[in-house]
Amino acid sequence: MRPLSLNMQYFGPFIDEKVDFRHLSKSQLFLICGKTGSGKTMIFDAMVYALFGKTSTESREEVDLRSHFADPKLPTEVQFEFEIKGESYLVTRTVKYIKEGNKNPTNAIVEVYKKVNDKWELETKSINTSNDYLKQLLHMNVKQFRQILILPQGEFKQFLVSNSTDKRSILRTLFDSDRFEELQEQLESEMKKELALIESHYQKISQYMSDMHDFEDEQLKDIKAIEGYRYQTIMLSIDLYDKVGNEKLKVSLAEKEKQEKQVSEIEKAFENEKTLNENFNTLYEKEALLKALRKDEAEINDLRKHLKYLKTVQSMTYQYNQLTDKEQALNLEIKNEEELQQSIERNKLKLNELTERLSKLNEDSVKIEQYRQFVQNTKHIKMSLNKYLEAETKLPKVIEEQQALNKETDKDKQELQTFKNKLNAISYDESEEQNKTKHQETLKLNLQDLQTKQKQYHEKLELLEKQQSYTSELVKLEKEKAHFEEKLKVKRQFDILSVEDEILKIQQHVHQGDDCPICGSMIETINGDYDFESLRKEKAQQLEVEQSLQGVIYKMTTYNERLKLTKEQLDKLMDISDVQTEIDNTTEQINQLVNEIQLYRERRQYKQSLQNQIHDIEKGLTQNELQLNDLKNQITIYENDVIYFKQETKFDEVVQFEKQVQQYEKALTVYDDELNQLNVQVDKCKEDKQGLQMKAATVKERKSMIEEQIKLTRDYLSREMEQHQITSYEQLDELLQQINDIDEHEEKINQFDKKYIEVEAVVKELGKKVKDKERPDTLKTEHLLNDAKETLSVIVKQLNQLQLKIDQNKQKSTAIKGVVDKIEHDLQEQAEMIELSRIMNGKNSQKLSLENYVLIYYLNHILDNANRHFLRMTNNRYQLVRKKEKSQGLSGLEIEVFDRFSNRTRHITSLSGGETFQASLSLAIGLSDVVQQEAGAIHLESMFIDEGFGTLDSETLETALDTLVNVQISGRLVGIISHVSELKTRIPTILNVNKNGFLSTTSFSYN
Asked: Name one GO biological process term (predicted).
């Protein structure tokens, strides 16, 4: 985040002040200096308040931000413009205050804008959404902002001395490490899912076993009833399902083969009878068809003769079509010739008409030339016509305005003298108002201290009540603890789950009659029905009692911690007493001072009002004098323009001249347009005449050529028609139309010949096949075949059902084996997952979760960068180190200091004030460096430091300044508030906060 500008209205000592940080380069070190109480820290307060609605330090309240000299009707407002990642943002926020005449305070207003295409666009305008928007944009809250970007006066060491929990909150925001916590939670959830998955595998095995087909076999029915968690026993017997199913399948296949052979023999006999019967039927059909074809044979022969004649006439088709086309072309040319003659006559009439109009138009040419000469001579007047029209119109008005302004000036001079007399009569002492205001501020500070003590007194009473409540709860928990411990005195049951696994393993590896591997005696029977369920229930009850006892112990520990904390807080508040009477007295004194200050304020405001009115009148008189000079010059210009216009145009009025010029220009335009149009039309008519004459000659030539071609074609057709005995063109046309049917006639004849030959051949072939044979009766054979097929269908159906059951059993067996493999694989990986989840959640020798381990890595990196500056500032004596000792709760992020002189590590609070400032400054720089290197969520482009340099000696001050110079060289803006005079000579850019009475202003200066 880099500040660009800051506007403050009625904010602390600033009435309407703007600080433009654009005067600073992007990487520059600058000093903020001024007198005590001038408002230097208020600049930091304004930036922090704009972003978070809080001040830069926890000790200052929001109500302290409003100026005591603010206009009661106007709000206290801050406008802060800043830049993040090259994007510009603007925040406007007001302070809650009580407006004059109201009892309740006005609500604060906050608006956030973003610059898009050089324009501000509103992003949010409600308080909650704006606060969330800014917090998400900056990736930090106000507490983290104070510890990272601003080192406030008196609070600069907070991040240095904060505990692991507070540092964790800041570091996880800076480096976006909460994703590691999500990974831990996800792993724990996956572990629970894995355990549930194994149980579901047991249920799947039971379900698959219940779906297995037992083929009505008693042994298979017994195996089917085994529970899923005894999957090892199931796996030893699962192949028996396949064996029994295959035996039954073998018997069914033999029955099917026997019946298929019988069906095949009957089917063969039936097919032979069926083929002979079909031959008889086909022979009868073909003989009837051959008889019908012989009846159509005479018609086909006539068609052959006609087809031969059409082919001889076909040669005249082309010449006949040519004759038809030439006659149509001749008719078209005759029509074109007539139309061209008509167009030539029309063109001649139009040309005569245009020539007559052109002659008549030339008669007005003398008058038109006079118009053209006048327009040309007055062209320069027309180009500036608005100027002369303005002079003619405004000259009287400007003279009248000059007279009115003279009267107004005389009146203002009299009013000015009256206000000056009133101002001299006012008596007001600014120092008395300031003294009473300071007294009021002192009383307010005293009142705040008293209110804090009264609040602590109420906290003391609440703590006493909590102490009594915690003691009572502890007595109850002691009784519960004794009750649960009594229950646990009963002898504990052994681990039933482990025993169950061992029993099952032994049962799988021993047989009846063997020696027992445990006691050595002979095994007479193997009992698989041991009552594990009752033992599980006892074990569950025992675990429930232990968990309840642990819960009570945890509650007792919690209440003991709370009781201890409450006692510590009560010890701190032991000397606090009730101060309500002092609060009432102080409040009464403040109210009295408010009334007195209000009287001074009213006098001051009245005096300021008179001064403002005098200033406004004097300003108005100056403006009137300037305006009178302008009017005088304007009158001279207007008068000269009017005289020149009359001389050039010989017209007294501009409107009359403009009207006359427009009439002349219109007449010239009409004349020129009409003359041009007539000339263009005459030229076009002459051009059209030539074109029409050329087209007529072309048409006449084409007409003669077509007539000659028609004569030659008619002679050829007459000779051919005489040769083929055709008497007319109508007869020829009819014959030529039949030529299109030649292909159809040929296809019809070919089809007849082909069909006749085929049918005749089939009749001869079938006659040979059925010779000396009788037609068989296939009905009896068909009944025998259907009965045999029905029997085979029943056998096949039974066989398919049996095969389906065998296949389903194989699928279930394969599925059971797959589930067993998953169980054994999951059981093997489960131990690894539990161990990994335990380690990642902090249950390890280092007591570090995965996220805390990552944060420690970043903290070590930050300390390495910080120590480069800290060692230099302390002449290689001090070094910041991370505390290695483990403690309850979150640990590993506390910081200690290693003293190289004593070769020992000590607590960070043992440093002196100056050394603590050096350590805090080094840590802030190191933090900024690491965040920039790691490209974290936050962009630290600025750093602001409020005081702390006064605790350093001259040599250490030089070292600290060199360090800050190196920081600003790396591309960051560094601002410092300090009273140390040496800084003014060392830092080239200074933001001066100038105090003038009760008000302050700012300005930049450069050494």
From this structure: DNA recombination
